[in-house]
Amino acid sequence: MANQPSAAELARLEEELDPEMAFRKVPHGTALIVGGLLLALSAFHYYTAGFGLLRETTHRGIHLAFVLGLIFLVFSGRKSDAGTVHASTFWRPGGVPLHDWICAAAVAVSSLYVPYIFEDLVFRVGNPSTLDVVMGTITIVLMIEATRRAIGWGLPLIALFAMVYAIFGPWFPGIFLHPGATWSVLVNHLYLTSQGVYGVALGVVATYVFHFVLFGVLATRIGLGRLFLGVAAAVAGRFAGGPAKVSIFGSALFGMISGSSVANTVTVGSLTIPMMIRLGYQRHFAAAVESTAATGGQITPPIMGAAAFLMVEFLNLPYATIVIAAVIPAFMHFFGVLMQVHFEARRNGMRGMTDAEAPKLKEVFARDWPTIAPLFGLIVVLFTGYTPYLAAFWGITGCMLVGLAHYRAASALAFALAIGIAAPTEFLRVPGVNAAFTLAAFAVMAHGVLLKSAEGRKRVNDMVDAFILGAKYAIGVGAAAATVGIIVGVVTLTGVGFKISWIVTSLADQWAKGVLDLVPFLPFDVKTATLFFTLLLTGIVCILLGCGVPTTANYIIMVTVAAPALGMLGVNPLVAHFFVFYYGVLADVTPPVAIAAYAGASMAGADPFKTGNTAFRLALGKVLVPFVFVFSPSMLIMVPSFTWTELIGSTAACLASITLLSATFSGWLLAPLAMWERVILGIAALPLILATPTSVAIGLVLAAPVLLRQALARRAALMAA
Which parts of the sequence belong to the TRAP C4-dicarboxylate transport system permease DctM subunit domain (predicted)? Predict the structure, then answer.
């Protein structure tokens, strides 16, 4: 673990491998200006999280103005131009094209226009002035271009199609026919109401997501990621196929502070992928293991991905509820990857890490134990009933305290923070507590500067750089959230969401009746079969949509148009949202646009498409688990119908199904599997998904002969040894 790349090296790898991190290279003077704006954006969110949010529209407007304006400065219009540093000329002041400066200023002004006219907004909604329409047009057009620069063409094309549908409704056939809207009416709905650009999606990113992205960057910078990787290597490294298991365990831990699949892949994979290759794993398999495990970062509590915070708003539930509901499904994802890695290692006789390669757990904690305090403080605040953004504020403050002080001071300050936050919840209500800890953090920063020591300056520079980098990472998500507001606005304006839900459920019902007529002895009724086919169609659409759209946007779109279909079939809203969320995340390892898998393939020197196919196979836990918790909602714990009997039964059935399928794909269970055994185990695993007594009995009866033969083969191998 001594060869861990530096923060700068990891950042460079992310920029190379993730299209959303392909930042423009600019001269030093322009970099200072852009860096100052990024720092101001992070400082704004840090301050409002701890000392009070602004009025809703004002807060969202300031956030959007910063985000969209900065994208025109941070991202080039063409990706091929991003890595070139241009000299300053009249048409390219500061190395940035003049039209980008103009667009940045224009979109910042138009984004702030709605907060500016807020007092009169109630009189203008439904009756926009010419200036309102002009400002709305500027915002919408430049926002779509900013989103294209930051995340690619997928989401902007969907948004453009949605607007075409809204305007040309009378020309659409059949059920999709609607009266249509003029451009003025559409701009009014998307720009001046809370149903469009300034809607829930933008609000969640501006209120929650930005803060947790910033916390993740700071936590990684102070060494928490290094602690997690060290613990993973110390605990899992010595078992068969050690580096692969370190990859899984490390990604699970690192995923607690990073909601980015690519960032997780790069950080953990920079260590584990070369080790897996040296141990004997094929390059594409090593890359697939890391990228699949890394996608778990978006579903791993307590931070998770941006979509988890959107659930808070959509479902009106505490974030702690979402975190608890995610625990078992997240475990199942990593368990599925672990079982396939284990069987692969046993089949090929792979060793674990040697004592020289694996670190000692005691040494890992002795070096980095203070870095755990900010995460501990964040979790405590989350589970004591406070808002997620206040929890993020305390986590960020803790990171600053630990990151800015020398080792012993960091220890004392970290535990002072942790003990203080863990005190009775009224502690946080004491006037001046936020200010006291914030001032302490800045006092430590000032101390480092005043001492004029190289170490002090380095720590201060690291914190400032982390604030800048956190803003860079978050602006793409902010643009996507604003653009997806266009799609949501069109859905609410035209009612197309309910039409799509009706089409999906009707088609699923036809398929269900057809299958039961053909095979009448199947152990479920028409309603269950209809739900199964509805889930299948929804999952496929989520994966296909995710090929060109980020997870957050995918989740919002599918919740808007598909969750109602699941609700019509009696699925609990929390369960429906988790189903859509999980299948949206799968797109990161699903060809043809498996961004995390391709990042891993690039690091391993492997074939990208082969890596993507293997990664999707390794993600079988994430494929199966959503079906299990729909039919057995108690797996999510936080549902009204929760029972311990259903939880234990569904969890056991899911573990068994994942294990049998892992053996099927790997060709090993207790001993090598013949092809006929693999086929039988694969078939036996499927009924277990329903987790009913009848389906479980069918699965176990089918698997019994193979399990018996495997036990006998294992016994014979041990006796021969």
Answer: 139-409, 419-639
- DSSP secondary structure code for residue 668 in this structure: B
Q: How distant, in Å, are the alpha carbons of 71, 244, 264, 475, 671 from that of 150? A: 7, 32, 19, 8, 49
Pairwise CA distance, residues 345 & 350, whole Å = 5
Q: Cis before residue 302, ω within 30 degrees of 0?
A: yes
Cα distance between residue 651 and residue 636, in whole Å: 10
Give residue 592's pLDDT.
Answer: 67
Total structural domains in the chain?
Answer: 2
Q: Are 218 and 50 in contact (CB under 8 A)?
A: no
Torsion of CA 298, 299, 304, 306, to 10 degrees: 60
The backbone torsions φ and ψ at residue 179, rounded to the nearest 5 degrees and listed phi first, read -65, -25
**Positive or negative torsion for Cα 158, 164, 169, 172:** negative
Describe the chain by its helix, strand, coil percentages, rounded to 5: 80, 0, 20
User: 57: Cβ–Cβ under 8 A, 6 or more apart, which residues?
Assistant: 114, 115, 118, 121, 198
**CA contacts within 13 A on the Cβ side of 61:** 20
| CA-based nearest residue to 475, from 77, 139, 101, 72 | 72
Predicted local confidence at residue 425, as pLDDT: 46
Residue 379 lies in a domain: no
73 domain-assigned: yes
Q: What are phi and psi of 668, to 5 degrees?
A: -150, 140
Q: What is the pTM of this model?
A: 0.85
**Amino acid making up residue 429:** R
Concatenating the DSSP letter of every residue in 582-628 gives: HHHHGGGGSTTS-HHHHHHHHHHT--HHHHHHHHHHHTHHHHHHHHH
Beta bridge partners, 672, equal: 668
Residue at which a domain ends, from 168, 202, 236 = 202
Q: Which residues contact 532 (CB under 8 A, 6 or more apart)?
A: 508, 512, 524, 627
Kindly state whether residue 44 falls inside one of the protein's structural domains.
yes
Domain that holds residue 717: 633-721
CA distances from 37 to 59, 72, 527, 689, 705 (A): 16, 12, 55, 50, 66
The residue whose two tokens read 């999980």 is 582
Structure confidence at residue 43 (pLDDT): 93
Taking the chain (721 residues) in runs of 10, the rounded mean pLDDT of each run is 55 60 80 93 92 89 96 85 75 89 96 89 83 95 94 88 93 87 94 90 89 87 83 79 80 75 78 81 87 83 79 86 90 89 82 74 82 83 80 86 64 53 49 58 56 68 88 88 91 85 87 83 78 87 73 81 81 90 79 75 83 84 85 90 90 91 89 90 87 87 92 84 61
CA distance 552 to 545: 11
Of 149, 131, 121, the closest CA to residue 61 belongs to: 121
